[in-house]
Amino acid sequence: MPFAFRKGFKAALSRITDKSNKTIDADFDEVETSYFHQKPASIQTLLKSTQFSRRELQIIYRGFKEDCPTGFLTEDIFKMIYGKFFPQGDASMYAQYVFRTFANSNQGKITFEQLVRCLSALIHGTSANKLMWIFNLYDTEGDGVIDKTEMLKVVQSIYSLLGKHTDPPYEEASVKEHMEFVFSKLDLNQDGVISSEEFLEACQNDPNISDALGCLHTTI
Predict the structure, then answer these.
(1) Which molecular function terms from Gene Ontology are attached (predicted)?
(2) Are residues 162 and 90 in the same domain?
C-alpha cells in the first residue's frame, strides 16, 4: 500500500509539472490568463501561503494551464491522468478519493490555488499534516470518523489501482484481512470507528501502522 501513495501521487501529478520543464514563463504575473474563466491568485499571494519557490509555481502553473484551460481541474481530468500511469489496473476509484481531498466543497473542481496549497502541505508539511490528509482520504463520508466500510473501500481501490502488481496478489479475502488488521490497530477505544485523534495517536506511536497505511509516503 505505501507504493500506491508514493508512486500514484507522484506519477499522476507529474503530468502537470514535468512536461512544463521545457519552457518556463519569465514571470508568473505576466502569464496570459485570458484562457481562464477563473483567474489564479497572484504569485505573491501563493509565495506567502505555500512553500514553493517562484520557479516551482511557474512550472506547475504552466502545466495546469495546458491541462485545465478553464482554470479548473475536474474529477474526469484527474481520473484520466491517474489512469495513464496505472494502465494495468483501474485507477478511477482511488483517483476519485484523492480528488475529493483536494476539491473539498468546491463543487467537484479544483482551482490552481487549491492545487498548489494542497501540494505544498503534502510535500513540505509536517508529519501530522500528512497523516491528516491520509485520514481525510479514508474518511470518504466526510463525517470526521472512519468506519470499516470506508476503510475497505479505499483499500480495495488501492488494490484495484495496482491490478496484478500487488504483493501478495489481489484477493478479496486478503484485502479484507488487511483492512481488519489495520482497523484494529487504529480503533484504540474499540468503538467501531476511528476518530482523527485516534488515527494520529496510533500512527505517531507505532511506525508499523504508518507503514501499513502508507501514511508517510505521500511525498511527491
Answers:
(1) calcium ion binding
(2) no
